[in-house]
Design goal:
Blueprint lengths: L16 H4 L9 H4 L2 H12 L3 H16 L5 H11 L4 E6 L4 H13 L3 E6 L29 H10 L4 E5 L5 H8 L4 E5 L10 H5 L11 H5 L2
Parallel strand pairs: 1-2, 1-3, 3-4
Helix pairs in contact: 3-4, 4-5, 7-8
Length: 221
């Protein structure tokens, strides 16, 4: 399907001049089309002394100082310390609770205070929100509902300074982020097929995951 100039976005760009300013912006560049006050408003947030400014500067510092040197676990700790976050909420999938427990130990070694809430909190069967039995993995049996809004509420009650997502399902992570009062970062993205490495699907569209570029496949999902 052909695109008009107005339809083209960053995914259509091959220059990434916004990153280095060593080339030219393409004619459709979103930076060139920005309303002036939008950029000014964003910069005001990042320059300020509020939470947005602290987050922006801390993220830039962690990226610049530790680029290519720290794991995501270490970067999360470095970021938390730079924004003054001491109480760290861990919103974990029950399928990754072992990994979450190790992460908690790491946080404690870093002199941070972790608070963990697993996704099945409330232990409510999926049928309670109208999920039919054929949509269950364990058909005909109790199957706990993932409860990301309640996870967020529990961590809100604990006054966490930063919440970390550990493997929440697609969509459940959206609900958690939507209801979290504290800033949220992601440590683990769930992908049961690819050992929680979803980028592998994009790297193998020329081979194993070629179905991703099949319109009949993706449109039918």
């Amino acid at each position: 399907m052909s695109k008009t100039k107005q339809d083209l976005t960053c995914a259509d760009c091959g220059t990434l001049n916004c990153h280095t300013r060593e080339k030219k912006f393409p004619a459709f560049c979103l930076t060139e089309r920005l309303e002036g006050e939008w950029l000014a408003d964003a910069l005001d947030l990042y320059r300020g002394e509020g939470l947005d400014g602290r987050i922006a500067r801390a993220a830039a510092e962690v990226e610049g100082v530790y680029y290519g040197r720290l794991t995501r676990v270490e970067e999360t700790i470095a970021f938390a310390k730079r924004i003054g976050a001491l109480r760290i909420g861990v919103a974990s999938c029950v399928g990754l609770i072992t990994e979450a427990a190790v992460f908690v130990k790491v946080l404690e070694k870093a002199k941070l205070t972790p608070v963990t809430v697993a996704c099945k909190i409330g232990s409510t069967d999926k049928s309670e929100i109208g999920i039919p039995d054929e949509w269950k993995i364990r058909k005909g049996k109790f199957e706990g509902l993932c409860n990301p809004a309640l996870q967020a509420r529990m961590l809100n009650e604990q006054n966490t300074d930063l919440n970390v997502v550990v493997g929440l399902c697609v969509g459940h992570d959206s609900l958690f982020i939507r209801h979290s009062l504290a800033p949220v970062t992601v440590l683990i993205v769930k992908d049961r097929v690819l050992a929680h490495n979803p980028v592998a699907a994009l790297h193998t569209t020329h081979s194993y995951c070629g179905r991703l570029l099949n319109p009949d496949h993706v449109s039918g999902l």
